[in-house]
Amino acid sequence: MKPTIMQLKELALVGGNIILSTNDYPLNQIRELIVVGKSRGVSVTIRNADKLTSLQRKSIAFLNPTKVTFDFS
């Protein structure tokens, strides 16, 4: 069972780095998580990043520069 976005936010608040998939969470929730993670220096890796548009990837990266990884494999 996948954790809820609230559970992921709680994990980010205590400093846990997170890997998630665009298949499991909507874009707005991924953005929220990245913003929460920024306050703690948390890195977020986004799998299936090819499902996002170029503009979406740029806007996500802008939220927390150097702390967002896009996985295209």
Tell me, what's the shape? Answer: globular
Q: Provide the spatial order of strands within the biggest beta sheet.
A: 1-2-3
- Care to count the β-strands? 3
- Rg computed from alpha carbons, rounded to a whole number of angstroms: 11 Å
Structural category is alpha/beta
Biggest sheet architecture: 3 strands, parallel
Low-confidence spans: none
Residue share in helix:
40-55%
Structure annotation, total helices: 3
Percent range for β-strand residues: 15-25%
Instruction: Return the average pLDDT rounded to an integer.
Output: 96
End-to-end C-alpha gap: 23 Å
Question: Element order, helices and strands?
Answer: HEHEHE
Please give the structural blueprint.
Blueprint: H1 5-13, E1 18-21, H2 27-38, E2 44-47, H3 54-63, E3 68-71
Helix pairs in contact: 1-2
List keywords for this structure.
42% helix, alpha/beta, 3 strands, 3 helices, 73 residues, three-stranded parallel β-sheet
Walk me through the structure.
By secondary structure, the chain is an alpha/beta fold. It is 42% helix and 16% strand. It is built from three helices and three strands, in the order αβαβαβ. The chain has helices at residues 5-13, 27-38, 54-63, and strands at 18-21, 44-47, 68-71. It has a three-stranded parallel beta sheet with strand order 1-2-3, covered by helices on one side. β1, α2 and β2 form a beta-alpha-beta unit. α1 runs parallel beside α2 (27-38). The radius of gyration is 11 Å and the shape is globular. It starts with a helix and ends with a strand. The model has no long low-confidence stretch (mean pLDDT 96).
